[in-house]
Amino acid sequence: IDEGAKRVKVLCDDTDVFILLMVFSYRLKVESDILMESFNSNRSVINIIQSKNKHSSIMPSLIAAHALSGCDSVPRLFGIGKLTVLKHLKQGILLTSLGDKESNIIDVYNASGKFISACYGVKDEFNLSKVRCLVWRRKAEGKISATPKLAALPSTTEVFNLNVLRAHYQAC
Is the pTM of this model over 0.90? Predict the structure, then answer.
């Protein structure tokens, strides 16, 4: 692209590559066409620059949110898909400290916990153990014999914080 290329075509089906292309084109202010095309000819071609411009308000937090919600090196959170993450980013719940080397790790934990708590439908809480109890209560409410599966609940704060460290490192 620095050599004056007008168009770059990337053949790939990986969400991680899509996110990386968007973030790096945003950070480097690339305006040349970057097209992402699947190996499967039935899928559409994605214009990375158009996608980046369409979602410019969430670009500063996109790599952090992607890493936190599950990428190749960080486990996915049960019940939290990429659409849920995008919805909360678009609502203005940003993750500016995650992936910032200068951020205090306690601030990173709290911001990440608050973001994922919102994804689970719990507002203004950063302690995932409390969120786990609230989600369990919501899922168990009105049921006499069947209890929610533990895998369907958010992780505890201690486990979540280990994932936050992985996501923070990945986003950095």
Answer: no
Q: What's the half-sphere exposure (Cβ side, CA atoms, 13 Å) at 82?
A: 10
CA distances from 146 to 129, 132, 140, 142, 156 (A): 21, 17, 8, 10, 22
State how far the Cα of 110 lies from the Cα of 145, in Å rounded to an integer: 35
Which has the closest alpha carbon to 167: 23, 96, 57, 64?
A: 64
Quote the DSSP letter at residue 71: B
The amino acid occupying position 17 is V
Alpha-helical (H) ranges within 13-100 are: 15-27, 48-54, 59-69, 82-90
Least confident of 55-59, 83-87, 92-96, 102-106: 92-96
Q: State the number of CA atoms in the 13 A half-sphere of 3 facing the CB.
A: 3
Cβ–Cβ < 8 Å for 68, 163: yes
Order of all β-strands in the sheet with 33-37: 7-11, 33-37, 46-47
